[in-house]
């Protein structure tokens, strides 16, 4: 279970999150919607542990542990996964090397035996096939020269391989056409399970047609101002975010 | 435009500006005791070469920072020490570095403090008629070949350290590959600095690499240290690449913390020939690698690349000059550096395109990665173009590790040190890819990986 309590965070001295409360139980999918500038991406970075995002007040308890006290790699090893809005291109680092290093780092943390080259290839082949990814994408450098859709599929592949307990999907729909969106959503849906929680962050309701949440929250000006079921997303689609004190975003 | 281009045998003019003759005697006095004891003392051309070197060094002494080419590398501290020529060492040396797979043999020459060690060397696996021997021996058996080549490219007038090397010219390596002979296995030259605990020592190895028309060879140099004393090795290498010949010349310098490594490589490439040079620097407290590659024939090619990885208080200087003297030449230069702590690196890369050298295609890149606030890179790219129909570009950057990439890797469970290692390795791979032979590329990548391990 993930319990976020009264979370305040600043970036460059400016307060972006102003007291977020949210509880996510195993197996639940929560969506956070909100206008631009509401603090959606800040929330994902704070949870993943990015430098420069300073928590000034509040707590995040992750399966009984203080999440905020952990380094980013410890959080990942404990099962936190951030699917990036803009996956980073890393020239010179092969996608396969990257995935193998990551999975073995996490296995080591969990006290599991590291995978050898053959075991890893077998695992990765099965996962790429399920996501409709080519072997060729594995041979390239991490995200380099990938289309928007390929980058998001690569994020989904990493999620499938690393099997997190808590996945944060930051604007996964940005930069995707409808076909790519469907493929990525299918990949994500395949990973839904009773012991895996997800936090889906999005500006548009569109993504939630494909990844159907259990709960929807509206984040505006650094606070959760409304919570409800999946129908809340449809309401927002119709009326926009004006009711929540934000001007309609472009 | 008034064309000012170097004459063929004098690639770069060393002015006497900043000359410091007071530093010369300390380096030259030991010669008085060696004199006629040097090999080949019956050869008049050799005596002249040595005398000219001695005279020149006596007049100018060590280079100083008042000389433009030495602005960023200060040898002042060398003048505070008294160096003695290293005594011949007979000690066994184990674990010699190699690029060969385990159990595979091949030609290898080993030098300890500049002296050839026949007991550690082997010329097995060389095709017939290929000569690979010590300079000392070649002065007896190949005097004509040496007379024709030694001092032809590395002119003592221009460079004080070349002059000093010539003054002491006694031992080193000679490779002669006859026309149309292909040497498949890499020829390894291993230089081990041992020195002395009680005395700073010097040696001045001289190399001559000759690939005749249509021939092909790969030379790999390893420079390692096995002692803790201060050692100064002052290498000079002259490289002749004949028409349509190919010479790949790789070098790894990982001498110890007490080492000063100075090296001058001068190459000439004839029509349709190719000279590739790659230098990986991780060792020595102070190093300077000068590479001069001259395309003296049409349609000649040269790649002059490398990587420098320094930390602590190391200082690594890379100074290159590529001269396009004839039309349709191609040159490519890719240097990558990683600098940590308060280490300092210098990159001076010059490309000269002579008036005749139309249709030249030149490319130069130097990128440095600074891992700490105290790290420093002095980078000076220079293009001097006297022809109008050429394509020449250069790029020069210094930066830090990409925070976004670092966070991305850490967010996938990879710890900071490993993530940094992956990014540094990736950064360097762009230059290592310039190495054509996979086995050598792998070996050099292994050296980089070892350097990264020491980091932790």
UniProtKB/TrEMBL annotation, chain A:
Top-level taxon of origin: Bacteria
ABC transporter domain sequence ranges: 2-246
Entries under PROSITE patterns matching the protein: ABC_TRANSPORTER_2
InterPro entries: ABC_transporter-like_ATP-bd (IPR003439), FeS-cluster_ATPase_SufC (IPR010230), P-loop_NTPase (IPR027417)
Keyword Oxidoreductase among UniProt keywords: no
UniProt entry keywords in alphabetical sequence: ATP-binding, Nucleotide-binding, Plasmid
Single GO MF descriptor: ATP hydrolysis activity
CDD domains: ABC_FeS_Assembly
UniProt record similarity statement: Belongs to the ABC transporter superfamily. Ycf16 family.
Protein name, UniProt field: Fe-S cluster assembly ATPase SufC
Species of origin: Azospirillum oryzae
Primary gene name: sufC
């Amino acid at each position: 279970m993930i319990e976020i309590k009264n979370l305040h965070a600043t970036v460059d001295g400016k307060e972006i999150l102003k007291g977020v409360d949210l509880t996510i139980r195993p197996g639940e999918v929560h969506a956070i919607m909100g206008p631009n500038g509401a603090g959606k991406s800040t929330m994902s970075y704070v949870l993943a542990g990015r430098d420069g995002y300073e928590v000034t007040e509040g707590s995040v308890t992750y399966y009984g542990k203080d999440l905020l006290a952990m380094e980013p790699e410890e959080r990942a090893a404990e099962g936190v996964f951030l699917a990036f809005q803009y996956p980073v291109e890393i020239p010179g680092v092969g996608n396969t090397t990257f995935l193998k290093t990551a999975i073995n780092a996490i296995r080591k943390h969990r006290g599991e035996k590291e995978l050898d080259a053959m075991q890893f290839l077998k695992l990765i082949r099965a996962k790429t096939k399920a996501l409709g990814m080519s072997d060729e994408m594995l041979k390239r450098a991490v995200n380099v020269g990938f289309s928007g859709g390929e980058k998001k599929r690569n994020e989904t592949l990493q999620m499938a391989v690393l099997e997190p307990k808590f996945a944060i999907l930051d604007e996964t729909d940005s930069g995707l056409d409808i076909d790519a969106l469907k493929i990525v959503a299918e990949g994500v849906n395949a990973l839904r399970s009773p012991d895996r929680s997800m936090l889906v962050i999005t500006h548009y309701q569109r993504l939630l047609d494909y990844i159907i949440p259990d709960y929807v929250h509206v984040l505006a000006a650094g606070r959760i101002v409304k919570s409800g079921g999946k129908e809340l997303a449809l309401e927002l689609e119709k009326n926009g975010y004006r009711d929540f004190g934000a001007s309609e975003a472009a | 435009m008034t064309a000012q281009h170097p004459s063929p045998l004098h690639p770069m003019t060393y002015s006497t500006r900043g000359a410091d003759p007071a530093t010369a005697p300390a380096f030259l006095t030991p010669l008085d005791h060696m004199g006629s004891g040097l090999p080949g003392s019956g050869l008049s051309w050799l005596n002249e070469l040595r005398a000219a070197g001695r005279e020149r060094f006596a007049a100018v002494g060590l280079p100083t920072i008042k000389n433009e080419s030495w602005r960023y590398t200060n040898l002042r501290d060398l003048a505070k020490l008294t160096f003695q020529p290293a005594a011949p060492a007979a000690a066994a040396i184990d674990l010699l570095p190699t690029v060969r797979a385990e159990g595979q043999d091949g030609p290898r020459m080993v030098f300890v403090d500049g002296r050839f060690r026949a007991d550690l060397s082997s010329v097995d696996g060389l095709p017939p008629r290929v000569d690979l021997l010590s300079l000392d021996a070649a002065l007896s058996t190949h005097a004509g070949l040496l007379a024709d080549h030694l001092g032809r490219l590395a002119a003592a007038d221009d460079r004080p350290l070349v002059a000093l090397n010539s003054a002491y010219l006694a031992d080193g390596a000679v490779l002669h590959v006859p026309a149309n002979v292909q040497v498949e296995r890499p020829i390894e030259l291993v230089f081990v600095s041992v020195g002395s605990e009680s005395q700073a020592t010097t040696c001045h190895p001289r190399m001559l690499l000759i690939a005749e028309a249509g021939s092909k060879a790969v030379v790999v140099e390893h420079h390692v240290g096995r002692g803790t004393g201060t050692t100064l090795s002052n290498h000079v290498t002259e490289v002749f690449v004949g028409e349509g010949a190919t010479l790949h010349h790789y070098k790894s310098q990982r001498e110890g913390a007490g080492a000063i490594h100075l090296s001058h490589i001068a190459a000439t490439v004839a029509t349709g020939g190719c000279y590739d040079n790659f230098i990986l620097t991780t060792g020595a407290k102070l190093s300077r690698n000068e590479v001069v590659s001259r395309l003296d024939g049409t349609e000649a090619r040269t790649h002059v690349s490398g990587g420098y990885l320094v930390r602590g208080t190391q200082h690594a200087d890379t100074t290159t000059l590529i001269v396009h003297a004839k039309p349709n030449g191609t040159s490519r230069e890719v240097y990558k550096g990683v600098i940590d702590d308060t280490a300092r690196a210098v990159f001076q890369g010059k490309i000269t395109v002579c008036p005749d050298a139309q249709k030249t295609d030149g490319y130069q890149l130097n990128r440095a990665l600074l891992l700490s606030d105290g790290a420093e890179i002095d980078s000076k790219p220079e293009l001097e173009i006297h022809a109008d129909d050429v394509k020449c570009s250069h790029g020069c950057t210094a930066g830090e590790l990409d925070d976004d990439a670092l966070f991305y890797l850490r967010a996938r469970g990879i710890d900071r040190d490993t993530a940094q290692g992956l990014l540094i390795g990736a950064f360097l791979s762009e230059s290592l890819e310039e190495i054509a032979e996979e086995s050598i590329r792998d070996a050099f990548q292994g050296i980089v990986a070892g350097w990264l391990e020491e980091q932790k």
